[in-house]
Amino acid sequence: MARREGEGEGDDGFVLLTVLVVIVLFVGLAASLAVKSRLLAMQAANRGVATRAQARVDGAALFVADALRPVPRRPLDAEAVLAAATAGSTGANAPAPALPAPLPLPVDGSPVVCRLSDDGTRLLVRVVDQGGLVDLNGAPVAMLRAVFAAAGLDGQIALRLADEVADFRDPDDDPQANGVGERAQYAQKGLPWGPRNGAFGDVGEIAQLPSADPAALARILPLLTVWNPRAGVDFTAMDVAARARLAADAARQPDLARWQLASERGRFSVEIRLIDPRGVAKAARGALVGFDGDTPGELRVQRWWRPLSQPSSGETEGNDAPVCGSLRRVLDIGGR
């Protein structure tokens, strides 16, 4: 049958439009899938870069921790024992005890910068000897009062805060000084909690105390630790940031000098940051390590965390320390 003029032309146009719409949708879907695939590939690549960066700082943290391992002291031989005994009986000077071997990097929080590549990528290493900090659990009240006052706290605030530290950690509800029950002191400040009546688990817990206002915390937090369980502090090993909170002659002041106690070099905090050429930390690792376990000299990681703060511009500049060459070799980076 002959097709009449104009018959079906409208249907042909509709079919063509439908085909075009389908093609456009297909192209759009294909483009969307391509973009999504590219984004997924980029995310996977970024995760790979981040994982490698994190593995690098984790390895660096363990290497630095191991480098802090104390050198075993040789036992005295019979000749040395006889010499010491003879010196004691004759009044002569006995041989001086051997000084501990020098450590391969500073342990007072001073930044060490290790260059990794010519483009400016570097590692920022900070180590703090916990023996140079004041322990919230081990320090007597008199020591806490003296340290808080030396850090610039008002006399009464220093007294109250030291007493509250002791009340927080002791097992009873008997206050140190003011006659008000420990829990009542918290209630008077409108705090819904009371003292733990147990040891501090972290220095940040001092913020729970009734007299711990932000200004006081800013002054004393850098001085504190919970990893130096001794009634003393080594001012010569103190973190430089903590030392800046005290007067220049603080270690010679009688109230503080009585608490000077040489560090046992048993516990250290280690922080490693991988710094890119722009000065931004791309990965970081913090570790609290110790060598005072049941087996002498055995490395034990007590805590493992990821520091969140970015370094200041001045911290990321500096020359290689002697430990940097070994660190680069361990990380399989040329010992340039």
Automatic annotation (TrEMBL):
GO terms for cellular component: plasma membrane. Gene3D superfamilies: EpsJ-like. Residues 139-227 form the T2SS protein K first SAM-like domain. Pfam families: T2SSK_1st (PF21687). Keywords: Cell inner membrane, Cell membrane, Membrane, Protein transport, Transmembrane, Transmembrane helix, Transport. The chain crosses the membrane at residues 14-35. GO terms for biological process: protein secretion. InterPro entries: GspK, GspK_central_sf, T2SSK_SAM-like_1st. It comes from the Bacteria. It is found in: Cell inner membrane. Belongs to the GSP K family. This is General secretion pathway protein K. It comes from Aureimonas pseudogalii. The lineage of its organism: Bacteria, Pseudomonadati, Pseudomonadota, Alphaproteobacteria, Hyphomicrobiales.
